[in-house]
Each structure stands twice: as structure tokens, then as C-alpha cells.
């Protein structure tokens, strides 16, 4: 018995690629449709997982919106490296089919009424957009370390995001000092902080925030990738 196919039939929902918009070289805004999407409520910050040909090979994406009435969602996909996810993103065409698991919880999102800030990188833009829309204007800062400043700026403009600071990522990590200072400044106002993206960047920032007196209860972390590893959830 092919257990991979059995699991896919049991838990994954067939979906169709309804549209693709290439915003920048490695960023694609992908619309997915499925009758199964009408059966599930979604909250900003929840994730879906898309199978890459097998139930055991999948990649995680954060929807930027969810239209339950139309059975439609959109994800911002970033082709990061040369793994299965990036290959799928680059080869995808309108009309293609895929299998989707979710939506389900990914992290504890800060209360919509709270002051908050998110740190991340290109892989965090979808989450940042979804969470920022829950908050009052000016109450949710986004600080991103990015390798492609121009591409990330085009995404921010296309999604109509505000309060986003893009910082060019340096191999030695020296760019994190300015981000750390800004996060500490925001945290002094009792803000909730969400640290996402690269594991090797999250760790020193979290340590600095904790050393500065920010309680763990106001720091949420979610690594999307790590140097030398593939397929983090």
C-alpha cells in the first residue's frame, strides 16, 4: 500500500491554482481555490501546508486572506534557495492542482488590541501582512532583514503595507544591532513581539530582549528556516 497517497486522501484537500502574480523576481502572489476552503474558518496567523508531490514533503505558507464564501485564499510565496518549495513556486502555473492541509494554528498571534511588532525576513511578509491588518493603523511595526531590498519593497507597496522597515541583511549579522534597538524601544511600551524567519537571527534577538527585561510572555518566536537545514515548519 502507498501510505503517502493514503495520507494525502485522508487529510489533504485538493485545490486549484486560480491565479499567479509575480511581484518581484522571487515573490509570487498565488490564489488557490477549493470547495473545502468553504468548510473552514481561518484566523490571521494560521498556516496551510502544501504537499510537494508527497504527504511527507510539504512546505508551509501563511495565507494573507481567506474568502470562505468563495472558497478562495491567497498566499505570498518566496522562492528561497533551491529546495522543493522554491522549485514548486517557480514552476507553478495557473490551472495547476495541489493538495493543501489546514488551516491550522502556527503561533500565538498578539491580541488585535495590543501594540505589537514583528521581526522577520522575506519569508515573513505574508504573516506580517495578515497580522498587521488586524491592528489599528500605526499599532503594528514590521522590521525585516532582507537580501533583496528592491524586491521586498515592491511587495510592501503591492500589499499596501505601512510601518515596514527594510534592512539589508549582512553576512556577519551586524545589521541586527539596529533592529534590536528598535525592538527594545517598542517593547518598553509593553508591546508584544513576534520574531520569525531565520533561526540564527531570532536567537540573539530573543536573548537580547530577555536580557533587557522583556518577559517571555510578550515574545513569540517561529523559525521558518535555518542555515544548513531544510523544511522547517
Automatic annotation (TrEMBL):
<dbReference type="InterPro" id="IPR007037">
    <property type="entry name" value="SIP_rossman_dom"/>
</dbReference>
<comment type="similarity">
    <text>Belongs to the SIP oxidoreductase family.</text>
</comment>
<dbReference type="Pfam" id="PF08021">
    <property type="entry name" value="FAD_binding_9"/>
</dbReference>
<dbReference type="Pfam" id="PF04954">
    <property type="entry name" value="SIP"/>
</dbReference>
<dbReference type="InterPro" id="IPR039261">
    <property type="entry name" value="FNR_nucleotide-bd"/>
</dbReference>
<dbReference type="InterPro" id="IPR017938">
    <property type="entry name" value="Riboflavin_synthase-like_b-brl"/>
</dbReference>
<dbReference type="GO" id="GO:0016491">
    <property type="term" value="F:oxidoreductase activity"/>
</dbReference>
<feature type="domain" description="FAD-binding FR-type">
    <location>
        <begin position="10"/>
        <end position="110"/>
    </location>
</feature>
<dbReference type="InterPro" id="IPR017927">
    <property type="entry name" value="FAD-bd_FR_type"/>
</dbReference>
<dbReference type="InterPro" id="IPR013113">
    <property type="entry name" value="SIP_FAD-bd"/>
</dbReference>
<dbReference type="InterPro" id="IPR039374">
    <property type="entry name" value="SIP_fam"/>
</dbReference>
<protein>
    <submittedName>
        <fullName>Siderophore-interacting protein</fullName>
    </submittedName>
</protein>
